[in-house]
Design a protein that fits this description.
With 279 residues, the protein is α+β, with helices and mostly antiparallel strands. Strands 3, 6, 7, 8, 9 and 10 form a six-stranded antiparallel beta sheet that branches. Strands 11-13-14-17-15 form a five-stranded mixed beta barrel. A two-stranded antiparallel ribbon has the order 1-2.
């Protein structure tokens, strides 16, 4: 009887170990991921560019049709470490799409030995003080990486309301997680500049005057970002993986203060240095 109990206990332990090993496989987007390690150079937090022609992005690793294409020479932020499916590595990339300046999707980036993207080194972060043109020249991820949550003062700006804007995503809190109607222009104003930056206004702050020259103070990395939730409102826009809504919200510029100032005399135009060679 004791021998039978020992055999039964051994079988139960063996079954439990097998279940643990089975559950240890991480399911991401309906794909089983083995921890083989990321390909050299491609990991969360770097920027990449296609090296074998345009790169399609998908809402799912199960593919179907791509929702957008990353053109050769364009840069994208890698928002996840690689995972393996169908004998190649897949990563989450953040790219512009439609009226959104940063959506996330899956991209197959080749194998460890033959990657289809190259990592790139971006230009150095611009020094303070910043102009609207400088901020507009940076991607959302670059803005957050360069400035974190520090307070930034922009000496000359003008805010314009866009009443017809419809956010491509529903969001909570809506003032931060949805596309903003407020555009911030630089010293040439809306009539003289095409470059603008969408800004967000906390309900707790003072609303700056519109169509007036102001000095703007604000920050990226707002504290409310950790609670952000975003879901596609319009067809064709990809879904977000856990953590990506918070990242998107951290990349938004939130106005915290302002002062009215006299109309400016245009002084300079910022030209961003070229990116470095792909690595």
């Amino acid at each position: 009887m004791r021998r039978l109990r020992s055999i039964g206990l051994a079988l139960a332990v063996g079954l439990a170990v097998a279940l643990v090993l089975l559950c240890a496989r991480v399911i991401i987007d309906q794909a089983v991921v083995w921890n083989d390690g990321p390909p050299p150079g491609v990991s969360q937090g770097v920027f990449v560019t296609p090296r074998k022609g345009p790169l399609p992005l998908f809402d799912s690793m199960l593919r179907a049709d791509p929702f957008t294409i990353l053109d050769t020479g364009a840069a994208a932020f890698v928002a996840s470490d690689p995972v393996k499916r169908d004998n190649q590595n897949w990563v989450r990339l953040q790219v512009p799409f439609g009226d959104e300046d940063g959506v996330f999707g899956w991209a197959g980036v080749g194998t460890d030995d033959d990657p289809s993207v190259a990592t790139i080194t971006l230009a150095a972060c611009p020094p303070l003080p910043l102009s609207v043109g400088i901020i507009a020249s940076l991607s959302p991820a670059e803005r957050l990486l360069c400035f974190g949550d520090r307070q930034i003062t922009i000496p000359i700006a003008m805010l314009i309301d866009q009443p017809g804007v419809v956010s491509s995503y529903t969001g909570d809190p809506d003032w931060l997680a949805e596309q903003s109607r407020l555009l911030m222009y630089g010293e040439l104003g809306a009539a003289g500049e095409s470059e603008a930056v969408a800004v967000h206004q906390s309900p707790e702050g003072r609303m700056p005057p519109l169509d007036s020259w102001i000095t703007v103070t604000g920050h990226f990395g707002d504290n409310a970002s950790s609670e952000c939730r975003r879901n596609p409102r319009l067809p064709g826009f990809p879904h977000l993986a856990p953590g990506e809504a918070a990242l998107w919200c951290r990349e938004r510029f939130v106005v915290t203060d302002f002062d009215t100032v006299p109309a400016p005399r245009p002084s300079f135009e910022y030209e961003r240095p070229d990116r470095g060679e792909p690595g």
